[in-house]
Amino acid sequence: MSESTTPSSTVLLRRGEVHSPADPFATAMVVERGQVAWVGSEGAADAFADGVDEVIDLDGALVTPAFTDAHVHTTATGLALTGLDLSGAPTREAALALVRDFAAARPDDRVLLGHGWDAARWPDGQPPARAELDAATGGRPLYLSRIDVHSAVVTTALLDLAPGDLARGDGPLTGDAHHAVRAAALGAVTPAQRAGAQRAALAHAASLGIGTVHECAGPDISSEDDLTGLLRLSAKEPGPRVIGYWAEQDVDKARELGAVGAAGDLFVDGSLGSHTACLHQPYADAGHTGTAHLDAAAVAAHVVACTEAGLQAGFHAIGDAAVSAVVEGVRAAADKIGLARVRAARHRIEHAEMLTPETVAAFAELGLTASVQPAFDALWGGEDGMYARRLGAERARTLNPFAALLRAGVPLAFGSDSPVTPLDPWGTVRAAAFHRTPEHRVSVRAAFTAHTRGGWRAIGRDDAGVLVPGVPADYAVWRTGELVVQAPDDRVARWSTDPRSGTPGLPDLTPGRDLPVCLRTVVGGRTVFVRPGE
């Protein structure tokens, strides 16, 4: 496969499998002027062969719409790719050893950045103490975010760089203190380092068949310069599309920065892992109910302002009390300005993990999109997982009810929240289809749709995310095994390879099987990734 494809080229892809609702038996596709021009069978492809600029022999490969990751922190993802990764550290001692080696290898870095520690998975359950980190770094500034990015451990030298008089105890920093040290750490990253991290993240996304990312930026997460720089970079250089969200209750600011919504991680609460998600009943392993940042009145005011400005509103809500506050607030907004206007705006809720039948029904009624992360269940679900430790087994089993959301007609958009969980689109689809709680499972087809077309629908576009004539030519080419059609079942996954089903097949994602390998990613007709050797 060559790398010559440009948006102005006319390209015929043939002798493969094209995943298209227009033709479940399609083996070929024509792309012209950055759009899909035709999808069909191999015999009909001969008629196009002489009139195109390039013919790509798929050699049996699968072509699908490119994935959309609907919740990404791009710079943080890039810094995690180029910084210290503690996600594999099996113990606190191993994490400290990695910190020592990383500090020694980076003598010139103004601040040391790392991510991914999870004390809940370590034998002693204890995060690194500040004195231990001071010793491991030789007294240099260090910021280490927990896997959920809602708390961090830092060195004394980084505390000294942060404004205000922050707590000097040994525990992880959360809330405002965490936001302050994160701002200090990211403030020490040079513009060149930041752009390098953004390029690394987008290149990694492209290598995984991701054609679009929704950047969830905000004043407590990144910075205005970070978002505007990322949007400029993505517009100027080939790579995945970037759709920007700005998490602040300031509609004018979001529009000024080029965001499509004052949304994303506009925090109503925190996270379960850091005991900051806001619950109706106390945590099973802590004597409190978490942290509330916005109440229903604030939610209502923001939804009204965004709706009237023609922008999306959106909120980070994980705990059941936080989700209830969002539903109450959006309903109050609908009462004020009309349900039809609120529904038409397609406001978003990020994460939406602790739902009840009542809040699921309210999402459907209010036209809310659930922007969810199936990898959270794969990582933290199950009888012995973090959810069960935080909430008890009974409450934990209710989390991430994807099947109930789909049955109610709630639009789903899948993402990773990278770097919280890695960019991994096929792994995300697998996590939804093989949810640790069987009644929450959805079909591979439904999960795939949520990770492709669902991301486009979440920004108000119903004309993309599928391979049919007239849509943007955002697609990926995959090396994979036999294609199957799978239906969800509480007892056993049913599979069919019968082409008479009339449903285009997808890879067999049964746990233990190899995931598809991306050979090529194309965005708007422009090739943004080709696997070396292809």
TrEMBL record:
Entry-linked Pfam families: Amidohydro_3
Domain Amidohydrolase: 54-529
Name this protein carries in UniProt: Amidohydrolase 3 domain-containing protein
Organism the protein comes from: Streptomyces lividans TK24
